[in-house]
Amino acid sequence: MRLIPFALLLVLSACGFQPLYGTHQADSHLAAVELANLPNRDGQQLRLLLEDRFYGAQPQAAAQWKLDVKVTSSREDLGIRRDAVATRARRTFTASFSLVPAGQQTAVFSGSERSFVSYNIFNDPYATTAAEEDAQTRGLTQLADLIANRIALYLSGQQPSGANNVKAEQATTTQITSQTR
Q1: Is residue 5 part of a domain?
Q2: SS in 3 state form for the chain?
Q3: Residue 94: domain span
Q4: How many domains would you assign to the chain?
Q5: 64: domain CATH number?
Q6: Contact (Cβ atoms closer than 8 angstroms) between residue 16 and residue 158
């Protein structure tokens, strides 16, 4: 009975399973990605979150890749009362990205990620503003995690599901939707 867990560990190690994080290889790949500047407040906040995931406490390595990201957001009122006042809102954040080798113009990998977050609308304007800012932070944090995971998978040589290798004759993007409420 005591040998069963040990045997399972041996089988798992023989199947080719490799962790993405916890290896210096994944960290060094992400540290070699240069992040392009992003306009507006959402873009700046997303860029800072991506920097945390790509570089952490280590300095940025010599750029071998450039990551271009475009982020958009929209707001939708939900929970409309009879007096036409909304009591809940949903923010949708969408980021499209492309990874370009340094010194080149053509993307080799691109994709799109989406995040949905919702929050309550209160009678107190300060509470509503605080809830909306928290929703913005949660949505952009989710986007940063999704983008960092997709880029790390691509750079580690594993093809993430739903991703495109972009070739000169084929410039399409994919979209994976993540939803949190």
Answers
A1: no
A2: CCHHHHHHHHHHHHCCCCCCCCCHHHHHHHHCEEECCCCHHHHHHHHHHHHHHHHCCCCCCCCCEEEEEEEEEEEEEEEECCCCCEEEEEEEEEEEEEEEECCCCCCCEEEEEEEEEEEECCCCHHHHHHHHHHHHHHHHHHHHHHHHHHHHHHHCCCCCCCCEECECCECCCCEEEEECC
A3: 21-179
A4: 1
A5: 3.30.160.150
A6: no
Decide if 82 is inside a domain. yes
pLDDT digits (tens, 9 = 90+) for 73-103: 999 998 888 888 889 999 999 999 999 998 8
Is pLDDT of 20 > 70?
no
What are the tokens at 170? Answer: 């084929």
Residue 47 lies in a domain: yes
- Tokens representing residue 112 in the block: 């799109």
The model carries a pTM of 0.73
Position 91 in a domain: yes
